[in-house]
């Protein structure tokens, strides 16, 4: 079995978060969904568990970070082109998210990003590995 990754994120309003990420074309696994949590499918082996803050707190003795004021994680997702990067950020903004920086073009890699409704940072990027080490 291939290794899988489950990123767990606390959310204030699960329904609003599901609505937001649905507008970004993500889907959810109903087997792992209830009033406290849902499993957002990112890819075949990549999932994001959106957990209501009270439920999230049962998994850690530490205080939950207020992602609207502090950065606790930077979730990075690769896309197949610069156009897909820009399209995803545009969808996020249209769905109620915000950007936290201007796009960055490093030649071999193009990055942009958005904040979701709870302030979690999502870095969206395209990388052209054949261009690594080349000067422009």
CATH architecture of the largest domain: Roll
Helix content: 10-25%
Total beta strands: 8
What fraction of residues sit in β-strands? 25-35%
Tell me the name of the CATH class of the largest domain.
Alpha Beta
Helix count, DSSP H or I runs of 4 or more residues: 3
Helix- and strand-based class? alpha/beta
Give a written overview of the molecule.
- The protein is an alpha/beta fold and 136 residues long.
- It folds into 2 domains: 59 residues, 2,3-Dihydroxybiphenyl 1,2-Dioxygenase, domain 1; 69 residues, 2,3-Dihydroxybiphenyl 1,2-Dioxygenase, domain 1 (Roll).
- 20% of the residues lie in helices and 33% in strands.
- The protein contains 3 helices and 8 strands, in the order βαβββαβαβββ.
- It has a 4-stranded mixed beta sheet with strand order 1-4-3-2. Strands 5-8-7-6 form a 4-stranded mixed beta sheet, with helices on one face.
- The chain is globular, with a radius of gyration of 16 Å.
- The termini are far apart.
- 17% of the residues are buried.
Please sum up the structure shown.
The chain is α/β, with parallel strands linked by helices and 136 residues long.
Which helices and strands appear, and what pairs or packs with what?
Elements: E1 5-11, H1 14-23, E2 27-29, E3 37-43, E4 46-52, H2 53-56, E5 74-78, H3 82-94, E6 104-105, E7 109-115, E8 121-127
Parallel strand pairs: 1-4, 5-8
Antiparallel strand pairs: 2-3, 3-4, 6-7, 7-8
């Amino acid at each position: 079995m291939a290794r899988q990754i489950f990123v767990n994120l606390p959310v204030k309003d699960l329904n609003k978060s599901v609505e937001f990420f649905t507008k970004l074309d993500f889907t959810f696994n109903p087997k792992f969904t209830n009033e406290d949590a849902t499993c957002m499918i990112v890819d075949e082996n990549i999932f994001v568990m959106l957990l209501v803050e009270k439920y999230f707190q049962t998994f850690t003795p530490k205080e939950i970070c207020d992602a609207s004021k502090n950065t606790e994680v930077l979730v990075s997702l690769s896309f197949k082109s610069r156009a897909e990067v820009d399209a995803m950020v545009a969808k996020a903004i249209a769905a109620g998210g915000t950007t936290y920086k201007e796009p960055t073009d490093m030649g071999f890699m193009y990055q942009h990003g958005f904040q979701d409704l709870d302030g979690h940072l999502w870095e969206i990027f395209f990388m052209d590995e054949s261009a690594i080490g080349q000067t422009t």
